[in-house]
Please model this.
Amino acid sequence: MVVFTFCSNIAGQNQIPHEWKQIDADGKFSFHLPLNMRETGVIGIENYHKEYTNGKLHVSFDYDPMEVISYPVRPGALGKNQKEISLEIDGKKAYMFVYETTDMRKRPLYVADLYIGDVPNGDVKLRMLIETWRPANLELAETIFRSIRFTSGPSKEN
Model:
């Protein structure tokens, strides 16, 4: 059994490692990743989607996603040891689901799935998913999530 030790106040800390790089998501928002993360080239058709990996950590996002998670999420519906955390990211309400599942080779896969917006009403501005084979890497997910900053402008606020 794996116990996740995510902080429930991740948005309250602002310590981005200085060796990380900032990613500009087409002027919609920005976030930080470790320097060794590379863009995979996978893009979306229905919404703005990108993916990054370093072979140990996989990060993907969907901006203004067409589909969002059904809420409330049933305990265990996503995977084992499922935990839901309500938080605030860059002044916006967010929901994070942390759980354990398996990959296509049946290896344990640890997931942090973040939704920013009004999840209960299906109005989500950003979904960011982080997957790793090592539960300790979920600490990187925490840092990535709290680095998200939305660009000011005429976009719809949540």
